[in-house]
């Protein structure tokens, strides 16, 4: 939302507001967002830290903390804005959209990975700084640590802190200047592209046609399932809300997997990265969990209801049981297909860096079995109570509790990481264990499938509403 969209063009430009004011309002909104976030994230620290560390000079400590934290947060925000503005100015809207998702995902991954790995590096900071390593001098958090220490300790601070502080201030000035130069050009080019339009191009690729034919023949042979399956494929990447969900969940998954696999240690004043076998085993469950959780969040969100009139199950009496099941099973098939593709791809990618014992045939077969089982069962669990066609949900009447939502993820993620960690060594020992694990996964899937059918049958048997009846007193918000 740093740049205008179609709604801004069609609504705001028709009002008697000068274009310059619209541009300045957008800049003011960005500045308000950054300032508000920095304030909310750091307002309590100056009140708590003085009592915790008892600094010798309170004023120096507060000045160092406030300036270092504000400078580092501003640098991160301005850097992303500058990168986006430069790429949009150079490549234009159409080319920028092709790799914007990857850019956003990598940005989230990098920032979250720094957050997860920084506690590991915190104890090695003095050693790294005294060694004068290139890594320490090129690591942005250390730049603003230099600002912190230089202002707090004054002239008595180590010379390395003064050098890092100078690097941080210079980097902040350069990124701010680059963003100030690139943003107006990107803004004007974005507005021009919205006015002209994206142009006409082929909607389907010739590569996808044989793939769609195979999918239609093997996975979605019924017409209703086929329609919903391809409706999902054509909708998911076209709506900004859904793209943001995919980027967020994908970035979190990649950063958590990286933090689980990497083991950092300082050897002879140098950082050495090692690959953890346990981390590779746990990565399969983590990837499957965040992939299916992100798709589920996108499917049930009320972001795009323009096409929901097609599905009779959205309003009024639900569709017949068989039709409803076809609509819902198409979404589960879509999620399971991509869950398997991403999980298997992660297994093959991790096999390149895995230790020799995890590259053996038996170990690889067990990892693929765990990936398939986690994808199947997590799809069953996440979509057990979903009773709507993908992307046609209504906005909830009650505000969701964010703390409870986060608590569910905190409780679930360790479980899906722990299960492959303890089950894979046991499955590898004997062929009978492999067969027993496959049978257990199949039985659990059948149980979840039976329960899902019972929930949908009960949903379809609900009485329909008359024309003069209100929706809420009849359903009490329980249908969805």
* Helix and strand run: HHHHHHHHHHHEEHHHHHH
Number of beta strands? 2
Domains (count): 2
Query: Unreliable stretches, pLDDT < 50, 5 or more residues?
Result: 312-316, 467-480
Query: Largest beta sheet, briefly?
Result: 2 strands, antiparallel
Secondary structural class: mainly alpha
Mean pLDDT: 83
What proportion of the residues form beta strands (DSSP E)? under 5%
Number of helices: 17
What strand line-up does the widest sheet have? 1-2
End-to-end gap: 30 Å
Shape: globular
Give a structural overview.
This protein has 480 residues and is mainly α. The chain has 2 domains: 6-196, no CATH class; 215-475, no CATH class. The chain is 74% helix and 2% strand. It has 17 helices and 2 strands. The protein has helices at 6-11, 19-42, 45-53, 58-122, 125-131, 134-137, 140-153, 159-196, 208-218, 223-235, 240-261, 277-300, 321-353, 361-382, 402-429, 431-460, 471-475, and strands spanning 262-267, 270-275. A two-stranded antiparallel ribbon has the order 1-2. A hairpin with a 2-residue loop joins strand 1 (262-267) and strand 2 (270-275). The longest helix has 65 residues, at 58-122. Residues 312-316 and 467-480 have low confidence and may be disordered.
Q: Secondary-structure map with pairings?
A:
Elements lengths: L5 H6 L7 H24 L2 H9 L4 H65 L2 H7 L2 H4 L2 H14 L5 H38 L11 H11 L4 H13 L4 H22 E6 L2 E6 L1 H24 L20 H33 L7 H22 L19 H28 L1 H30 L10 H5 L5
Antiparallel strand pairs: 1-2
Helix pairs in contact: 2-4, 4-7, 4-8, 4-11, 7-8, 10-13, 11-12, 12-13, 12-14, 12-15, 13-14, 14-15, 14-16, 15-16
């Amino acid at each position: 939302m740093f740049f205008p969209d179609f709604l801004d063009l069609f609504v705001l430009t028709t009002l008697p507001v000068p274009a310059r004011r619209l541009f300045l309002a957008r800049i003011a909104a960005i500045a308000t967002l950054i300032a508000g976030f920095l304030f909310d994230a750091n307002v309590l620290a100056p009140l708590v830290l003085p009592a915790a560390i008892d600094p010798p000079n309170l004023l120096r400590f507060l000045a160092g903390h406030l300036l270092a934290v504000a400078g580092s947060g501003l640098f991160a925000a301005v850097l992303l804005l500058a990168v986006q503005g430069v790429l949009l100015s150079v490549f234009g809207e159409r080319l920028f959209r092709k790799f914007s998702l990857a850019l956003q995902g990598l940005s989230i991954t990098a920032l979250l990975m720094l957050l997860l790995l920084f506690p590991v590096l915190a104890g090695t900071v003095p050693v790294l700084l005294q060694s004068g390593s290139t890594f320490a001098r090129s690591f942005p958090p250390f730049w603003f640590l230099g600002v912190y220490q230089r202002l707090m300790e004054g002239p008595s601070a180590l010379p390395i802190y003064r050098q890092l502080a100078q690097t941080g201030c210079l980097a902040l000035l350069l990124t701010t200047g680059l963003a100030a130069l690139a943003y107006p050009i990107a803004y004007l080019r974005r507005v021009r592209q919205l006015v002209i339009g994206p142009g006409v191009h082929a909607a389907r690729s010739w590569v996808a046609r044989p793939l769609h034919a195979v999918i239609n023949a093997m996975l979605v042979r019924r017409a209703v399932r086929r329609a919903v399956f391809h409706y999902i494929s054509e909708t998911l990447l076209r709506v900004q809300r859904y793209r943001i969900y995919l980027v967020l969940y994908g970035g979190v998954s990649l950063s958590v997997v990286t933090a689980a696999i990497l083991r950092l240690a300082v050897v002879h004043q140098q950082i050495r990265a090692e690959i953890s076998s346990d981390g590779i085993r746990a990565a399969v469950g983590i990837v499957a969990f965040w992939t299916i959780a992100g798709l589920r969040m996108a499917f049930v969100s009320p972001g795009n209801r323009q096409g929901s009139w097609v599905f009779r199950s959205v309003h009024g009496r639900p569709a017949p049981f068989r039709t409803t099941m076809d609509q819902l099973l198409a979404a589960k098939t879509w999620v399971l297909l991509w869950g398997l593709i991403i999980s298997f791809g992660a297994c093959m990618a991790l096999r390149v860096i895995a230790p020799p014992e995890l590259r053996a045939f038996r170990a690889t077969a067990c990892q693929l079995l765990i990936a398939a089982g986690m994808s199947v069962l997590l799809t069953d669990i996440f979509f057990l109570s979903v009773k709507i066609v993908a992307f046609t949900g209504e906005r909830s009447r009650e505000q969701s509790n964010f703390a409870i939502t986060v608590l569910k993820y905190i409780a679930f993620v360790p479980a899906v990481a722990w299960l492959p960690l303890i089950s894979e060594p046991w499955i590898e020992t004997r062929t009978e264990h492999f067969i027993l694990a496959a049978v257990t996964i199949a039985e659990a899937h059948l149980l979840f499938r039976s329960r899902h059918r019972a929930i949908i049958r009960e949903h379809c048997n609900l009485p329909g509403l008359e024309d003069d009846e209100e929706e809420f007193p009849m359903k009490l918000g329980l249908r969805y």
